[in-house]
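User: Please write out a complete single-protein record containing the residue sequence and its fold in token form, without commentary.

AI:
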Amino acid sequence: MSIVATLSEQKAAGGLSFVGRSSDINGTVIDDTVVQKNCSLHIRGNLLANLTIESGAKVVVEGSVEGKIVNKGGRLLVNNKAHASCITTSGPAEAEARGVLKIDLTAIVSNWERLAKFSTVECAAGLEGNAYGCGIEPIAGALSRNGCQTFFVSDIPEARRVRAVAQSATIYVLGGLYSGPRETFAEVDARPVVYSPIEMAEWDLFASSHGWSGGCALHVDTGKSRRGLSVEEAVAFAPSVRNHGVTLLISRLDNFDKTANHQIAMFKELRRLYKGVSASMANASAIFMEPKAHCDLIRADAALYGVNPTAGANNPMLPVIELHARIVQIVRLAPGETIPDANGWTAKRPTRLALISVGYADGYPRCERGYDKKLHAIVGGRPCPVVGQPSMDLLAIDVTDVSEPAVVRHGNMVTLIGPETGIDELAVASKSTGCEVLSRLGQRFHRIYHVT
């Protein structure tokens, strides 16, 4: 007969919880758990910890599953299919990967909803650069299921990936007409962003010869971006716009000083000439800072992924990314000793360094002149300084002040990006931007897309 049990009652030495009889748990499991041979466990909540299922054991989970599962011949059943379908992995297997990159789909959707609430117009999502390096399919799917209808991508291959998970979405290709053969725009049902009269003439030729009426966007340079039709070209083009199937007029703000008002005023005049054509000027920063630029469509870009769109102010976005990597070696140094890539650092006391399985080949930022701000990793809940520069495959962390031996040992995970050290902190320290740091995170990580 099944009994109601709590993990605290089953806790054993070493921090593991062992289930040695048929048990029910009413709530979320947060402790690593082993279900022993021929036993059963029914979790009426979420599983957030690692789970080992021994031979003949059976586990039923009513909620979401986030931790690592090691199945040694048992059976796992996840009844909450809505949650389970949102939890996916990609990249190399966790045991073979340089690290684990966790991407919170709930936070991405919440960030999109937060941006959308700042305006009364439609909010599109920017997925260019493989969703800023985070992976298109899970993110486009999550956003589409929650109401996002328009997406911006870099090229045709990215448009294909969005179309596979968002069949009814409107997709604009920022790479323009040269991001793929003309025919593929029709095959994917994607709309090119056109940047010059020559491109428009080529698109018109294709559209008329193939009977394609899928539409396109017209990009106008109202400032100093140096890409797009000039304002004069856009004015001359306006009388014939309906003959070209333009569905969206686009521009962008260069900055948010007094020149922004000039750009907004010019774009307002263009909108008057392009009456009946939707217009878009505001990215995430302008959503917060320039309400007059909202027009008919606002574009949520890197802010979706937790990058701060309000420079100099508190980040209104939820964090999305966590990066964890393994300790691969412990190195002891005497005072005065140093390491390769130390960038002027030497040990001032007897020092313990943990070498971590992430380097600049994985996108961890490297700054040859030194970091502007000291970076930290989180080891056993304690912030530990990053030492020197990352090499291609390794990063050194000073763990001298971590007293618990079990925390600093070969194979243990440390947190490189998380609530304590976010994307923007890495960007400031490495004289980079949040977009760059985010987009460079490499493909050698085991990626976990999860809901919270």
About this structure: Confidence is low (pLDDT under 50) at residues 1-14, 81-86.
